[in-house]
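Attaching the record inline, Q. Sequence:
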Amino acid sequence: MKKMELLAPAGNMESLKAAVYNGANAVYLGVKEFNARNNIDGFSLDNLSQAVDFAHLYNVKVYLALNILFKDSELQSALDVVVKSNNIGVDAFIVQDLGLAYLIKKYYPSVELHASTQIAVHNLEGVRVLERLGFTRVVLARETSIVEIERISKNSNTEIEFFVQGALCVSFSGNCYMCSHLVNKSGNRGVCQQFCRLPYIFESENVKKSGFLLSAKDICMLDNLNTLSNLGVVSLKIEGRARRPFYVAQACKIYREMLDKNKYSSRDYNLLQLAFNREYTPAYFNGNGGIISQIQGNNGLEIGVVTKVNNGRKFNEIFIKSNYNLKGKCGLKFVYNNQEIASIGAHDIQKMGAIYRITTTSKIKVGSKVHIIQDDALEEDVLKVVKKLPIVVDLVANENEPIVLCAKFSGIEVCAKGEVCKKAKTITMSSEQVLKQLKRSEVFEVKNLNCKLNDCYVLNSTINKLRNDAYNKLQQAILEQHKKATLNRVELAKLEDVLSNENLHHEFNFKIIDNLKNLTIAENIIFDYNMFKVDDIKKLDKYCKQHNINGYIDLPNFATGKDIELIKQALSDTQLSVVANNLYALEFDCKIIGGQFLNIYNSFTLKILNDLHNMQAVFVEELSDADINALHSNVPILKREKVYMTLLHCPFKQNVGCDCVDCKYCDNATFTINSGKRFKIKRKKTVGCVFTLKD
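Structure, as predicted:
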């Protein structure tokens, strides 16, 4: 297996240490209000330096996630964060907002940019656009398949980062607007409310089904690391900045072992499940498989079954048959007929042979499967792991000369001098006593001590001072290797001066049709097809030419190489243009309307997209009328019907039980949330299918 970076989440300092101690090569973290995990404590610019220095001591890189969308009024603050964080020592920035990326590359071209998965790039064409924008690495959308990763790797020099562990969004990366439209809290702004984790009702013709129908499983790619290595992936990303340090430690430890030894045990896999899982899936990697979990929340590890229940007036006795070593405090979940019926904290655990007895006020059924979701004893052991840097220490004391302590690590040597030594009148300090004092460090571990006291009198306090002086010097010397060139703050000019002297919102008259029966006379026709057919494209082109109309094909926000090939084939020899709903479409050689899924939030994003490909107009999805009026643009800015989610798994295969050969798509199918809000399920089929939830 080729060497790959193990990239771990760090939601706080404890999680960062857990990642470093258990084998991460890099960590990613965020600062408050400027990242997609705005609901956790995270880090601030005040304590970021401590985090960066700690990671760099262990030669672990730090990537700062600025992976949200910014309004014009916020870009100065975001750019200031880049400057301050870079000067602290952050190694790279994970960015979603193309306007911010434009400003970073304009004013600070040396800064390393990684394209967030929220940009939703998933094919070669999208990667090529990111290359032109100055990104050196792309975090591919979780929906990217083996075929597309290989296509990107063989035809691009951009580094590929890929999620291998953690939560899987049911909606296509960066294209979920459910929270934004329902409660004005955008996932693209770091305040996702996870409406996907709520119960839904699915209805289609004679089928009605209820449950957690949009709650996705977790990704686990342990069995695919060799394949990812062969495909050219350079960084394996673990999701979970909002999860506990135990999860971070356990995930890093097990993936580290797999990378180093090219194998893992069934026990390792069980421990990974116990860390946290909603059931595991390789997601879309090997095809569009089942990604929906039957059980909400942490599924933990299945460890046994309830064999007997004695119900009392207040407390119930539960008897569990299990080979798991239950002890101390545990969190248990009980599942009956694939539905969770109770989750409890078990304290009074009594072992009776292969049977455990616990008491609870919860009602539990005989035959329930038992899952352990928290094992405090195990967590305590895992979080005890501390990694120290191995050093060689030379200590020399000669009469009438200053005592000298030199510490060496990885080619770096520092020395500290102490007081002038005197001959000892009685017994001198032993090497063992010296070593005991030198061991008092949270960072360094003495692997080899060369101690020459030469019968000199030395105090413990002298050794302690030498140790502190030398170890501090060594830390600074190590950190000096990670020092970066200092950036100076740039005061952004007024947007009117940078972009235009006034708002220039022109009119753009258009008509959207979803089938050719609705062809009409309009200045601009946008064909939002349900089923892509080459004959329909040619027919539309003929109609537009006859009536001197501008015709546009509304392209899907997700497209494989086969989809793109078919679209290009159909558009050849036509005068039709496209609505670009993903960056890949900017590679098309025709007129373009910027689609709503490009997530335009600020004037600089408009500028960079227009620089890449002149836009006839742009659609926006989440911006209010006031936000739109604040944009500086010389192209029309438009809005269309709301889209709540984009689904790449097939809800009909999931809920009706069909396949592509026996497709049961129904145009009036719906999902209904428990509040009563109903969403229509609409399909856009090119070669593959994309589903959207709309009003």
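The longest strand covers residues 301-311. The first helix runs from residue 13 to 21.

More tomorrow.
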